[in-house]
Predict the structure.
Amino acid sequence: MSLQKEYMAKRQLIPKSEDMSKWYTQVIQMAQLADYSPVKGCMVIRPNGYGIWENIQEKMNPLLKELGVQNAYFPLFIPLSFLSKEAEHVEGFAPELAIVTHGGGEELKEKLVVRPTSETIMYDMYSKWIQSYRDLPLSLNQWNNVVRWEKRTYFFLRTTEFLWQETHTAHAKHQDAMDMVLNGLELYRTIAEDYLAIPVIKGRKSAAEKFAGAELTTTIEAIMPDGKALQAGTSHDLGQHFSKKEAFNIAFQNEKGEVDYVWQTSYGLSTRIIGGLIMTHGDNEGLVLPPNIAPVQVMIVPATNDRLQTTQFCEELEKTLKSQQVRAKVDTRNTLSMGWKLNDAELQGVPLTIVVGEREIEAHELTLKIRYSNEKRIVSQIGFEKIVTKILEDIQVGMLAAATKKRDALTFEVSSYDMFKEKMNTTKGFIKAFWCEDPVCEKFIKNETTASTRCLPFTNKQGDVAEEKGVCIYCQNPATHRWLFAQSY
Amino acid sequence: MSLQKEYMAKRQLIPKSEDMSKWYTQVIQMAQLADYSPVKGCMVIRPNGYGIWENIQEKMNPLLKELGVQNAYFPLFIPLSFLSKEAEHVEGFAPELAIVTHGGGEELKEKLVVRPTSETIMYDMYSKWIQSYRDLPLSLNQWNNVVRWEKRTYFFLRTTEFLWQETHTAHAKHQDAMDMVLNGLELYRTIAEDYLAIPVIKGRKSAAEKFAGAELTTTIEAIMPDGKALQAGTSHDLGQHFSKKEAFNIAFQNEKGEVDYVWQTSYGLSTRIIGGLIMTHGDNEGLVLPPNIAPVQVMIVPATNDRLQTTQFCEELEKTLKSQQVRAKVDTRNTLSMGWKLNDAELQGVPLTIVVGEREIEAHELTLKIRYSNEKRIVSQIGFEKIVTKILEDIQVGMLAAATKKRDALTFEVSSYDMFKEKMNTTKGFIKAFWCEDPVCEKFIKNETTASTRCLPFTNKQGDVAEEKGVCIYCQNPATHRWLFAQSY
């Protein structure tokens, strides 16, 4: 789309408050985060969207390293037979597989699956590499693309191909694995809350909602402004499901010299979280990005294109900000007006805009515009970079606080199934309710309200949960935990 | 493999000087750069190998940005029909395709190709995005995985799936495209020579050797110690082959208001260059990595594991070096002896090793061991970080110089076909010889000597070539250029 057309189109951006779903697909295209591709179910991630993903990678890599995780790369293709080695795993993924039947002009003897996740191909190698307790822990991560066939797709939230990271660790003891599960989950909380400013609730999944092949799945759950939940990252205790002899036989000699099987974990976070970012913070004018993750943190807009003095001044500002590790950029496109550029910066959710005209230069001032609060500030040019840095920090804090407030306003405790249903028919949102943990009740609730159990919230970093006395919202039998329910993406 | 077994295996590393090919596959596995996977033709890149690729990415991203290139992501799958839109392109890639015929449990209406390269899927989007000269240049890059079916595979150098970056740019004028082709090539020279310490020759490919769909292919060519050439990166002028109406119809309104078609370029560099890195620098003891690309630049080895003082001292050294942006690491594995650790560091090609024992601590000295020259130096602990930084710089320069010397010793000018054949039967190497540029002669030479034209070398950054008067080495007809011939990987 040419810039003119985009500008025209922006004028027609449907307000988020009117129809979030339409707004979502429109704003993604207009802000050039992504576009539809000619391949059904697959999208193109454009630089504005990919830049967010790159920032997530840049933030996450050092955190993974702190957990002793190293990056590696495993094959895209997996022999079909591998998936069957863990019974639940193949059952979970079989309906979503893309199958390669021909390669190099010949029909393949064994069909290959395009990885939907890499447990099986990685653990085949783990069984080769791990012999002794000295080889443990083995903790590898991949940044890659995976394919899970989808009939109905939605930008970022549900696409046939998506990008993610998947970490797979093997340990000598179950406790070490459990520590890693919780460390992985805490890492995701950090990414979601401290960088993306998306408040999340940590907890564990019900048996029905856990990962295919896991002993236990933990999750971070966010609530979107339309009251639907987004599972933003999951961390799994795989127990010895994949390591046992009949599966991948990842045996090792323990410190006592006995044969043992490793305890494993896996955790993953995908480009889907970018969908959560867009929905959580965007407004009627377009995207709103938190500074910690915005590809451009400060857009400097010259009031005119024809004055060399203004351009040079803007470039000086950019240089000063960059020297303070601020991702600043001058909008130098000289066929566009100032108004146009300001609209673009607004649509694309740039956290802070600086407008520079003759007046500002002469008065030794700068006009700052804060995207998320729509606030304007006039500041002195002297030491402006310190003020900008401080404002960016404040924006980050402010955005998480605002999102948390919205999340809390969409979180309800209910004591009767009627209230439950009423909430699901009106505001939706997170509903806290007692559940007896019988999968039958869970299924009925889901069939009748489309709300599923999102998690049993943790009360601390150790993964403890609150024990209470109550009765199941559905069957009235005794229940000891309040679960979090919601409709979900 | 357990550490013990690795150590045993290292003892059996075949000398590079004896059989480079065997040494190559052995050293890659022993140094844990990569391993065979259960999927035919695909390999696993382990952390030691992937770390090199991450460093290449880290060096290349800012260079791409300087050229105005932005990162993005396009789908893995390409509709089979897309490939046919450019005649040479489909002909070139058809024999190497992996085909997805089933997705989500159903047979697909249109078969999908796993991308062997992304021209077609990207240019379909380019035709949607580009309307006016104001939308140009459009310069996007992807770091991704591609699949080209291979019957015979070789670690890094030839695998069915490999990792690479592919940059695709569109311009209003042919001259702008040509500038980009040469800038891309210069970028590759920088990566190869300044970071990987692999000397390369820039030049253009013959018609027979150019990229399927290109108007012109430029290349960087390196020579391996066994006298075989490695094409280490290519940059293509695609002309209007893909943009013309019958192909992807990437039309735009030019400044005069007329309809025009964009001029395109693409360039790519893959994990194959890691193969070149291993062969160029490795020696009988294992890998030798240049500091600019080594995942670990300095390995600090405590002489004993049981002395807290030594460990703490080593960690202080690590901290000091890290504060100087040196990638330092203490080998803290406490079940292994010093000798073992030194052997590991040597095998893995760590540029510099520091050995720390009681003697060193007391004498306020450090023992440094330089991997590539096998040199030992005793230095004072005071200000050692400055010395280390300087030594790392010297190693980088020294390794390129040493590799250039070897390259020059393997470069020959010949004036007769007999000499040509003799060289190809003995030392092999780069052979400079006049060629009339008739594809028939090129084909006969290749059939008779297995040597192909590698490139017509450029004499400067502008891509000029030397015009000379001579006769074709094969047919004796007049020839105006000396081409570079070699057998190749």
Remarks:
- The first helix of chain B runs from residue 3 to 11.
- Chain B touches chain A through 64 residues (CB under 8 Å).
- The CA atoms of residues 236 and 365 of chain B lie 53 Å apart.
